[in-house]
Inverse folding.
């Protein structure tokens, strides 16, 4: 609280007015002098001259010094892996700084980088973020803060080891700006014990899934086939339905049409299941869900990390019950596609004085399946690491069935028509659709409002929006 | 005569020099961390990203932003509730506490009312996430009685201004009570005794003696509360985090200024919004100052 | 005419009415605090499932404490130390700067006095979101980013404190006293240090308290200025812990570094110094404001 105690300062109002005028003039003069002195050093973001096809790395890098120490920003979850790097590389120590990892919309990475841009120094060499939508912001056409990794910095063979399509979100106009840390491909999680008990077959299409939901509503009311209470709901259902709400077609162009039949089919499904009460509108991580619905989850379409963090961590479902199935397919579609919820990324700064060491660090950490003695919390995007991770996870004995096959299959099925723009689709969904759902509105009725907010947000960030 | 005049001048000169000496360190800090930043913001508000003169274009651009008017509306509603709550409740509570007989009770109550003021920042996000969720809240019966069974029912748009005002009151009232309490203390005891002997009741004494005598403190509180209210930021930011974005992070004008600067990398637009707020605060302040006769000498 | 009996009845009614009001508001202010106190001694599961006012257990408290202290190899201790360092350094500078300034504004006549008062008011009304960038640029210009001074110096600019001191000297320190000292041949500095300052101890405590609280709880400035986690004060550390809880960073799930009860415990630790200072200062704070009465 700002606080001031005052009784009086003896001053006549008439005079005060005149003095205030004088004060403003005086301050303006001081300000003008100061600014004249400083304005020469002011640099401005949005610098497309960073790109340089003639240089070694495809952009104008700072003068390199192979001895320069590399500073890395990690969240507290990623701290052990950075320490492990130092242990494995006694002669190439990195300086580890922990920060909030950009989690929960804190936007720390961009906030601080933009301040450093203005100051002209201070950038970390490598940063981890729990989200992956910084590419277009920091691209050559954006602030120019990010280093291109596929233009000479890292060999193509290394990049090819990342799961198919996993670097799409980091790629703007053919330039890749990050390494994906983990994949968050969606699969169909289900409680095998309950399914067996109820005598249900695991569905393979969204149509079967809806049918089964109807049966659940009639035969076992109270049990859930999914949730739609989190901001990433569109990334589970809309993405898999190939709803064209977030088709990033260029550095500053986006195609969005939420009235497309493909969006409507997913929205109708959500409305029906919500009306049937087989789909919860509570947040999975809220106390409400944990307290009242933890043992009611029959099926749960969602990302690879649900296994560890929802069932094992938050809901504390006992071992031997949960299994994963391949993503569901819409019967009319040619092939199965799925969505992706988050997945962290490692970014290298274009200002780094030791790009080689920075890249070495970033590729090393993405290649690890284990953080020290513990398994990484999420499914690695780097395929060889993912193999180790999946088999180790399976060995833990928590799951009731094979999860390796569905997860690795889903890893290659993420639909590429849902891009990663500079703004957050999750924030838009939460602000408009989720807020509306809380007031009892259907998802279908909110598709136009969703469209409007996407267009508004996109234009705010300088995107051109087409339908 | 001349000697005295000379003395006075010398004394005056000495005073001026000492005056300047005493305020010098403060003036340096004021210039560095107050005046220059404010001027820099003014400069930003009237220039474009390249540093060229932009006239009022930053102001029109931000004012026509699709989030601006809703944010302005939110803040206006909040302000009315918040100022009403603050002026009525803080003033009455202070009067009630002040007339208690026991010193110890007074001290304990002041502490109890202040404690929430010690909690701040990130940890309050967690606190409100729990307090506003009817399934786990310590005030669950209250929330349920108001017809909210889930967290999302609690944070519907209609409830938000009241929720923010309650949060602001919960954290800030204790400090203001302390300030007004101190102001009440400056009223000489014989004035109150005289009023009592004239047969004035407690309420009468409060309304016609105590309140007018601490008018300046109340005015001052309202000025700062008004400015803080137009700059509403912390409370919606807390609830935005606690609700995972269902309450958007562009709810208030000041949040919007923050979004412009740090999400959109548009420091010029951000400065323009900040200046809007400064102008509103200055205009209302001068209104309060004249109405509350803050600068009058007694 | 009121009879003695009805006066007693009236007094009784008044007393019970005020008691009810005070108790109701006491509950309002304290219920969440009580919940918070209890929550630190619960397990994550109890926090959600058990009655909000169930007491928890010593065992859970010990477990939470242990987990909290081992977070990032004892980062909480470092953060607390940093907070103390920044808040205290800033406190010392604030007092050294604000008290003489307030005294001069109230008791000495010099050119630019009104200008100073008005500029201070204007600066106080400026939204802080607009001040972050310029202050950052200034601090960066003198290469102080990531040093304690980058937060201590801006913290030390405390216009509210100057106003507090100004009002106190104007109202509570009689001018005649200073005048008399002057005639006795005291220098201006001597008058301030020997006469005015001893009288002003209450306002020193007042300014000190508010400055300490404001700096202790400030999040944004250190968040912007200090890129290194070893230099974070508690408030920035807390926000980092918040984003390490499963509620706010669902991906971490079973491996979460911080559970909500641990965060609650961290909150309590971070609030404790403010409350201790409040208790210590309350006597002076109230006394400081009371002193005004002596003049009337």
């Amino acid at each position: 609280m700002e606080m001031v105690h005052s009784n009086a300062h003896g001053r006549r109002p008439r005079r005060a007015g005149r003095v205030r005028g004088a004060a403003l003039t005086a301050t303006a003069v001081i300000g003008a002098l100061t600014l004249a002195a400083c304005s020469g050093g002011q640099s401005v973001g949005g610098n497309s001259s960073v790109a340089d096809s003639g240089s070694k790395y495809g952009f104008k890098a700072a003068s390199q010094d192979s001895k320069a120490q590399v500073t890395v920003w990690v969240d507290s979850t990623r701290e052990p892996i950075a320490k492990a790097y130092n242990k494995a590389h006694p002669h190439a120590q990195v300086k580890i700084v922990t920060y909030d990892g950009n989690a929960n919309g804190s936007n720390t990475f961009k906030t601080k980088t933009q301040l450093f841009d203005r100051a002209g120094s201070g950038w970390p060499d490598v940063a981890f973020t729990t989200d992956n939508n910084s590419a277009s912001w920091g691209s050559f056409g954006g602030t120019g803060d990010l280093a291109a990794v596929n233009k000479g910095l890292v060999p193509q063979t290394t990049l090819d080891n990342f799961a198919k399509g996993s670097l799409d979100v980091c790629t703007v106009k053919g330039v890749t700006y990050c390494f994906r840390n983990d994949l968050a491909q969606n699969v169909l999680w289900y409680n095998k014990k309950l399914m067996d008990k109820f005598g249900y077959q695991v569905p393979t299409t969204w149509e079967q899934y809806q049918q089964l939901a109807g049966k659940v509503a009639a035969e076992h009311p109270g049990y859930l086939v999914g949730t739609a209470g989190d901001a990433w709901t569109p990334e589970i259902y809309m993405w898999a339905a190939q709803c064209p709400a977030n088709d990033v077609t260029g550095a500053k162009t986006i195609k969005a049409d939420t009235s497309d039949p493909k969006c409507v089919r997913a929205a109708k499904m959500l409305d029906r299941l919500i009306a049937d009460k087989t789909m919860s509108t509570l947040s999975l991580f809220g106390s409400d869900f944990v307290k009242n619905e933890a043992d009611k989850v029959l099926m749960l379409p969602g990302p690879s990390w649900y296994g560890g963090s929802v069932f094992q961590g938050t809901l504390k479902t006992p071992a031997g019950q949960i299994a994963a199935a391949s993503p569901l397919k819409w019967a009319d579609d040619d092939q199965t596609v799925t969505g992706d919820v988050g997945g962290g990324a490692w970014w290298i700064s274009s200002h780094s004085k030791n790009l080689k060491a920075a890249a070495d660090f970033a590729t090393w950490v993405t290649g690890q399946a284990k953080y020290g003695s513990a398994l990484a919390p999420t499914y690695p995007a780097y395929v060889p690491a993912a193999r180790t991770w999946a088999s180790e996870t399976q060995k833990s004995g928590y799951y009731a069935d094979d999860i390796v096959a569905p997860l690795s299959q889903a890893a290659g099925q993420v639909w590429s028509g849902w891009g990663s723009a500079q703004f957050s689709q999750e924030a838009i969904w939460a602000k408009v659709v989720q807020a509306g759902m809380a007031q009892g509105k259907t998802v279908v009725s909110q598709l136009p409002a969703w469209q409007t907010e996407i267009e508004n947000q996109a234009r705010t960030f300088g995107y051109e929006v087409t339908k | 005569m001349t000697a005295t005049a000379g003395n006075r001048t010398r004394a005056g000169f000495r005073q001026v020099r000492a005056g300047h000496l005493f305020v010098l360190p403060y003036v340096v800090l004021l210039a560095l961390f107050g005046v220059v930043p404010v001027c820099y913001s003014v400069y930003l508000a009237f220039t474009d990203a390249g540093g060229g003169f932009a006239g009022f274009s930053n102001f029109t651009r931000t004012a026509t932003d699709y989030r601006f008017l809703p944010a302005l509306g939110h803040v206006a509603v909040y302000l009315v509730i918040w100022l009403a709550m603050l002026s009525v409740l803080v003033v009455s509570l202070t009067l009630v506490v002040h007339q208690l007989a026991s010193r110890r009770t007074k001290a304990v109550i002041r502490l109890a009312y202040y404690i929430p003021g010690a909690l701040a920042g990130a940890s309050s996000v967690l606190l409100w996430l729990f307090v506003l969720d009817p399934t786990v809240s310590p005030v669950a019966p209250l929330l349920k009685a108001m017809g909210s069974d889930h967290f999302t029912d609690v944070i519907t748009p209609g409830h938000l201004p009241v929720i923010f005002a309650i949060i602001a009151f919960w954290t800030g009232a204790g400090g203001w009570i302390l300030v007004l309490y101190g102001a009440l203390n400056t009223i000489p005891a014989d004035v109150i005794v005289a009023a009592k002997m004239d047969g004035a009741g407690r309420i009468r004494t409060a309304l016609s003696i105590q309140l007018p005598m601490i008018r300046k403190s109340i005015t001052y509180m309202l000025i700062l509360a008004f400015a803080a209210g137009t700059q509403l930021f912390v409370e919606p930011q807390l609830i935005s985090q606690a609700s995972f974005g269902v309450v958007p992070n562009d709810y208030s004008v000041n949040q919007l200024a923050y979004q412009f600067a740090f999400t959109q990398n548009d420091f010029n637009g951000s400065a323009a919004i900040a200046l809007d707020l400064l102008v509103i605060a200055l205009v209302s302040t001068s209104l309060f100052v004249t109405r509350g006769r803050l600068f009058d000498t007694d | 005419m009121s009879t003695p009996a009805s006066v007693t009845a009236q007094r009784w009614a008044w007393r019970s009415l005020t008691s009810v009001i005070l108790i109701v508001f006491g509950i309002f202010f304290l219920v969440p605090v009580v919940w918070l106190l209890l929550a630190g001694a619960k397990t994550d599961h109890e926090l959600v499932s058990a009655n909000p006012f169930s007491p928890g257990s010593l065992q859970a408290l010990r477990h939470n404490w242990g987990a909290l202290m081992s977070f990032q190899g004892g980062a909480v201790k470092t953060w607390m130390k940093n907070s103390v360092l920044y808040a205290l350094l800033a406190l010392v500078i604030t007092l050294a700067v604000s008290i003489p300034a307030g005294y001069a504004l109230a008791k000495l006549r010099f050119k630019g006095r009104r200008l100073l008062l008005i500029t201070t008011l204007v600066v106080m009304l400026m939204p802080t979101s607009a001040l972050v960038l310029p202050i950052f640029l200034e601090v960066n210009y003198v290469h102080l980013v990531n040093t304690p001074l980058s937060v201590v110096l801006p913290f030390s600019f405390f216009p509210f404190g100057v106003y507090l001191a100004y009002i106190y000297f104007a109202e509570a320190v009689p001018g005649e006293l200073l005048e008399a000292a002057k005639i006795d041949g005291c220098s201006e500095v001597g008058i301030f240090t020997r006469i005015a300052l001893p009288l002003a101890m209450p306002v020193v405590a007042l300014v000190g308290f508010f400055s300490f609280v404001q700096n202790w709880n400030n999040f944004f400035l250190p968040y912007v200025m200090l890129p290194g986690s070893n230099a974070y004060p508690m408030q920035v550390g807390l926000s980092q812990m918040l984003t390490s809880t499963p509620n706010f960073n669902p991906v971490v799930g079973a491996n979460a570094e911080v559970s909500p009860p641990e965060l609650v415990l961290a909150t309590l630790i971070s609030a404790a110094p403010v409350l201790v200072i409040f208790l210590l200062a309350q006597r002076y704070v109230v006394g400081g404001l009371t002193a005004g009465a002596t003049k009337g």
Remarks:
- The first strand of chain A starts at residue 70 and ends at 74.
- The radius of gyration of chain A is 25 Å.
